[in-house]
Amino acid sequence: MSWLAKYALPLCILLCFVGLALHTAYVVPAFENSDEAEHFLYAQTIAANGVLPTIVPRDTLNDADSALARWNNHAHHPPLFYLSAAVISGFDRRELASYLRTNDLIFTRGVTANNPNKWLHSPQPPTDQSLLALNMVRWLNIAIGMVTLSLVYKTALIALRSRYAAALAMGFTAAIPTFISIHSSVSNDPLVVMLFSAGLLWSVRLLHRRQLTLHDDLLIGLIAAGAALSKLTGAALWAVVIVALAISVLKQWISLRRAVRTLATALVIFALLAGWWYVRNWQLYGDPLALDATAAMWGRDFDVVATSFTQELQRLALSFWMMVGYRHEPIFAPDWFYGVAAAVVGLAGLGIIGRRRVRLSIWDANLLLVTIAVVVALVAIGTVSVDISYGRLLMPAIGALAILLGWGLARLPWRLGSLVMIAFFISSGVVLIRDLPMHYRPLVAIEALPNTVTPVDWQLDDLAITGIELHQATIQPGDMLTFDLYLQGSNAANPALNATLVDSLTGEPVGQVDVFPGMAPTDSLQDSTLYRATITLPLDASNKALSPRALLLQVRWYDVGNAEWLDFTVGNGTLEGAALWVDTDYARPQLAQVMDIQFDDLLKLASYDIDPAETSASDVIRLDLAWDIQAQPDQDMVLTVQLYNAEGQFISQWDGPLAGLPYWLWRDNLSVINSRDIALPEELPAGDYQLRLGWYDLDTLTRLPVENAPQQDNLAILETPLTIRP
């Protein structure tokens, strides 16, 4: 078999991973990955000062004047990754602090919903190389991810003796969005995952080679030291190594003396390479793991998280498959993706109980299960004192889990595992390529307003909103309304935008959002540039089915620092009839009098009710009209309700549009109830009267023709008389 035939599939998986990782790195703005700024500042301290940062009290950090000092709070982590990052990111970073301008909707007002961005991002191009330095470290982690995937493939190949099964294990790992996310960010997670995977490969290889050399002793000492210097959890790799040695001794593949010699040699290497870190912690903080100092910074007594055990367990499960961003507003995958992931795991489970030829030895299986158990136990123990219930912390065990799943998928009949893996990869691609960019939408500079935009002129001094364009005209309860907002200029108060959808019939808000448009500070926009910001506004879920109606879009500016609303100096910030609310659960009621009166081809009166039909002069009657709208008119239409006596003489009329539904929102198959309270004239003589209805064009005053009902001058005559008592 040629080299290309052997490795074509793994190479294809690597290319897919690199493509998705580069895309994710491009979409997620600078420092918006979980703790990315904090990780970068650790490396920045080493690069700028040549020393490791130290853990300082939380109050000291909070009181720091510089953003670089205030957010440099990850000194509890071992330094190996940061030393590597400092070496490759030696660029001009004099404006680094300007990237760390906080989104004060989160930190001052406590608004986290729809604000995944922890930072505000200026649309002006950077003048230093901070962004290049950041991307260099992100690309380093992508390269580390490629190494990890190769290690997973090699480990699976040894354990399962099947290139097909090994490719499935590798593909499963590469397609997990969380795996892609951590490898497209600045984080120490990729390095510890890679070294843990290397340690697992060493252990599985031991169970199959059944012999050890000095090279093996030195190698595992180097790997274990690297893992421990990457992250505190990396030290748990020793448990996996010891279990592999114990199995080998138990099965008499190696002698106890040989196992002890390997362990002793590895410990010496570990002490020489990593021991200084633990000695330093002992000297600075009083214990080799700096647990008390870390707890003082991140412990639950100080870092309060209002979640229950069940919620944290759910977050752990969701974030294992996908989590991008920070814990205040984490970006998870859509619900359907978790269904796909569950199906992949379920099918792998079915394959495991099958009897196909791909086999996994009981000792390999035990080692893989121990690896998973060790990592899960570490997260479980750690989360008792610190909020670390995040799926990315389970990634050191991804090699073990992937091999078990690859084994199960490879045992499915008709090579179904291939189709399952392709479907999983496509699903991940959809989530990362289609869905993820919707959460991070930067400002876009444009030349002029598109023709499709509704022009407006709403000004707050020099900050002007010049246009609105909705992405959809019809919306349902619980949906998301997306619209483009066009703005120009700036305001020194750096106000945030509040956008609210209002029910045009009740005046009640049905959804709102508070954001900085385009994740940008509004006090530093270029006055001569026109910007487009895409905003997503969630609608509330309705407890009661409501009839179709127009929604008003109201926008306002809010001064976050001074906690006050800012009034427009020009305009009112209200867009009438912005969208049509259509509740699929709404069923229009049938009124007392059933009709079928057609008004041209625009609409039909299906039923009506007069309440009361017998009353006195000067009283108020309620006229309910059930309309079936069939088309959208070209101009505004007005409904006229006219009162005639028994002799056909005109008495009075009441005109007005269809309440809560402007003509530009009319469309086919729309059913509404229009209710009118009609105040009858005083001194109206007793007797029977007729109510007549008609529709006319507001521009030409021409009435629509009436069909299927008695009519006079294109006014439909209602059959039920209105009786005025003496």
What can you tell me about this protein's structure?
This protein is of the alpha+beta class and 726 residues long. It folds into 3 domains: 3-119 and 130-322 and 330-436, no CATH class; 444-581, Sandwich (Immunoglobulin-like), CATH 2.60.40; 593-724, Distorted Sandwich (Coagulation Factor XIII, Chain A, domain 1), CATH 2.70.50.60. The protein is built from 19 helices and 23 strands. Strands 14, 16, 17, 19, 21, 22 and 23 form a 7-stranded mixed β-sheet that branches. Helix 2 packs across helix 5 (80-88) and helix 16 runs antiparallel to helix 19 (416-435). The protein is elongated, with a radius of gyration of 34 Å. The chain starts with a helix and ends with a strand. The model has no long low-confidence stretch (mean pLDDT 92).
Describe the protein's topology:
Elements: H1 3-27, H2 36-49, H3 58-62, H4 67-70, H5 80-88, H6 104-107, H7 130-160, H8 163-175, H9 177-182, H10 189-209, H11 214-228, H12 237-250, H13 256-285, H14 291-298, H15 309-321, H16 335-352, H17 362-385, H18 398-410, H19 416-435, E1 444-446, E2 454-460, E3 463-470, E4 474-475, E5 480-488, E6 496-503, E7 509-515, E8 530-538, E9 549-559, E10 564-566, E11 574-581, E12 593-599, E13 603-611, E14 614-615, E15 620-629, E16 637-645, E17 650-656, E18 670-679, E19 687-697, E20 706-707, E21 711-712, E22 715-717, E23 722-724
Parallel strand pairs: 4-11, 14-23
Antiparallel strand pairs: 1-8, 2-3, 3-5, 5-8, 6-7, 6-9, 9-10, 9-11, 12-13, 12-20, 13-15, 15-18, 16-17, 16-19, 19-22, 19-23, 21-22
